[in-house]
Amino acid sequence: MPSGIGSPKMNVLPLADGQPIALGASVSATATSVGIRPEHLSLGQPSNTTLRGRVRLAEYTGAVTLLHVELDGGQTCLVIHNQGPTPETGAEVGLLAEPEHLHFFDREGRAV
Prior knowledge:
The protein is built from no helices and eight strands. The chain has strands at 11-14, 33-36, 42-44, 51-60, 65-71, 76-81, 92-96, 102-105. The strands form two sheets. A five-stranded antiparallel β-sheet has the order 3-7-4-5-6, with no helix packed on it. A three-stranded antiparallel β-sheet has the order 1-2-8, with no helix packed on it. 0% of the residues lie in helices and 38% in strands.
């Protein structure tokens, strides 16, 4: 599975039909999931993002904070946060990713 490479692991989320993941991202018709590395996610206003959720855990490591964000769909995303104040546990956040940092996979986990 694609999430097994790297530390921390890549977030792999199912693609919802017609759901835009990032502005300007082109998605292959065979893609069923999208991978986003934690360091390529940033926080935004929930009203201005397609990925929204609540902070469930914030782990300060000394250099960055690892945010565990439970998305509206029930999946959990890990975000490496190092800019601005750390949101409190329970805070609603939006997640942003640039199209060039998205990795798409088919049902078998192959890159498409």
